[in-house]
Amino acid sequence: LWRARGQLERALVADITRRRWFRSKAQSVGKGDLVDLVTMPETGVRMAFLQLSYIEAEPETYVIPLGLAVGTDAARLEHDHPRAAIAEVTGLDDPGILYDATVEPGLALELGRLASGRKRLRGAHVTLGPEPVRGSSALRRLPADTPVRVAPGEQSNSSVFIGDQFIMKLFRKLEPGPNPEVEVGRFLTED
After folding, report:
1. How buried is residue 117: exposed, middle or buried, by Cβ count under 10 Å (0-12/13-18/19+)?
2. What is the average per-residue pLDDT within 144-150?
3. Rounded Cα gap, residues 24 and 35, in angstroms
4. Do residues 169 and 155 lie in contact, with contact meaning Cβ atoms separated by under 8 Å?
5. Residue 17: phi, psi to the nearest 5?
6. Long-range contact pairs involving 16-23 (C-beta distance under 8 Å, separation at least 24)
7. What is the pLDDT of residues 9-63, one digit of tens each?
8. In the Cβ-directed half-sphere of 2, how many Cα atoms lie within 13 Å?
9. Which residues neighbour 39 within 8 Å (Cβ) at sequence distance 6 or greater?
10. Count of CB atoms within 10 A of residue 38's CB?
């Protein structure tokens, strides 16, 4: 699946336009290029970086955490998180579903540990690394069974509640430079 880039790009482009966090609904997508897939080592989730080219606008890059559910995991996903499904996957021993892995509790914990540490994850073209803020070191100490839940309803980004202490926001559309929401959060939490 991960090597079938053309099929993966087509599936992601077909799916992204129906997502609330997709910002350019008025534009006609010319094509989508998978810039990189960065594997999260603990969960196996692939962080996909998809650049969309438009007929009459500048390109945009979106991040989409991807998972593959097979067999009973696919059935559970369809039941528990039907909106997370991106595409059916065939050619495996069991039928599978490619899905938006934001619904995976382990991903939020792994991203939190990455954001609060020093480790970097490198893909072919993209590097994920920390941008710690005050208090984020507590994310490294959270137990694996910390309750995690995705905020109800889709928004312009994806928010996840981690225990009763943290809210993590996954910014879907990537922009150059510091994100204003991160800067405001940093200002509000630092002395």
Report:
1. middle
2. 87
3. 19
4. no
5. -70, -15
6. 16/50, 16/52, 16/62, 16/64, 19/154, 19/172, 20/153, 20/154, 20/155, 20/156, 21/154, 21/155, 21/156, 21/157, 21/158, 21/172, 21/173, 22/62, 22/172, 23/60, 23/156, 23/173
7. 999 999 999 998 898 989 999 899 999 999 999 999 999 999 999 989 999 999 9
8. 14
9. 45, 46, 47, 121, 123
10. 20
| Region of poorest pLDDT, from 12-26, 87-101, 104-118, 175-189 | 175-189
What dihedral angle (degrees, nearest 10) is formed by the CA atoms of 101, 107, 108, 113? -150
- HEC secondary structure over 76-134: HHHHHCHHHEEEEECCCCCCEEEEEHHHCHHHHHHHHHHHHCCCCEECCCCEECCCCCC
Across 32-46, 87-101, 113-127, 162-176, the highest mean pLDDT is recorded for 32-46
* pTM exceeding the 0.85 threshold for the entire prediction: yes
pLDDT score recorded for residue 100: 95
Contacts of 74 (CB under 8 A, 6+ apart): 94, 95, 96, 97
64-80 pLDDT tens trace = 999 999 999 999 999 99
pLDDT exceeds 80 at position 182: no
Tokens of 148: 């995690």
